[in-house]
Amino acid sequence: MYLPKHFEEHDQTEILRFIEAHAFGTLVTVDAGVPFASHIPFLLEQGETLMLSGHLAKANPQWQHLAANSQVLAMFQGAHAYVSPTWYEGAGVPTWNYTAVHVYGKVRVIHDADWLREKVERLSAQYEGSSETAWLPSYPAKMLEAIVGFEITIESLQAKYKLSQNRSAADQRNVMQALDASEGENERGVAALMAKYQK
């Protein structure tokens, strides 16, 4: 992605925290020169090698793209908000503040039923939580034949936190205050991030 230096996040601990916090991402492949994307939940694997894992419906042709070309892109997006130039003390134009992470890596396709079961049950446990009404995995094993798993070995991470770092301290405060006064969750989320990163 286009990544001016003042918007680039380098802290790997923060980037991995971001991926886990925004784990419903976009898997992008290219098939015969045509981009293809699926929106899916990922699991971040932080062992000796950083990896992302997930699964696709077998009816989704993207798993065949993975099998044919091992290079993939996974994208994760966090808080984002419109920024009005009326909030600046000086001149400006409308823009958008946002946070995003791109993950590039090599993928392998997995059909193993035990692997698939473990990942599906981990995802379920993560999002069901520990409430008394949480769904406990109970399904015919044959249903696993309807999905295909994958693991992405992470080769590079790009993180863009575009939070008005290129504006003056006064402009940053004005943008932060305007966003914090909004009723929108995204806007307030961007304001909170700006408070961490302001000059």
UniProtKB/TrEMBL annotation:
TM segment ranges: none
SUPFAM superfamilies per UniProt: FMN-binding split barrel
Gene3D superfamilies named in the record: Electron Transport, Fmn-binding Protein, Chain A
Pfam families in the record: FMN_bind_2 (PF04299)
PANTHER family in alphabetical order: PROTEASE SYNTHASE AND SPORULATION PROTEIN PAI 2 (PTHR35802)
Name used for this protein in its record: FMN-binding negative transcriptional regulator
Organism: Thiothrix fructosivorans
